[in-house]
Specification:
This protein is mainly alpha-helical. It is about 50% helix and about 0% strand. The longest helix has 21 residues, at about 30-50.
Length: about 70
């Protein structure tokens, strides 16, 4: 039988709940969506940078200037 407890880096459900309560107490309910939005934008920018997308033409991700001959 499979264990249905969520395991993230060796953490169980109780540990994750305690961490979430601490984060909620530290940042407050109004600040958390803003933090998550910033985290999402950061991850998107990282992925775009990794893929070589420079944002010159958002409709065409292959229009990057990194691989064009001089």
């Amino acid at each position: 039988m499979l264990n249905t407890t969520i395991l993230i880096a060796g953490l169980g459900g109780t540990e994750i709940a305690i961490i979430l309560v601490i984060v909620l107490l530290l940042f407050g309910g109004k600040k958390i969506p803003e933090l998550m939005r910033g985290l999402g934008k950061g991850i998107k920018e990282f992925k775009d940078g990794k893929d070589g997308v420079d944002g010159s033409d958002p409709a065409d991700p292959k229009s990057s200037n990194t691989n064009k001959p001089l």
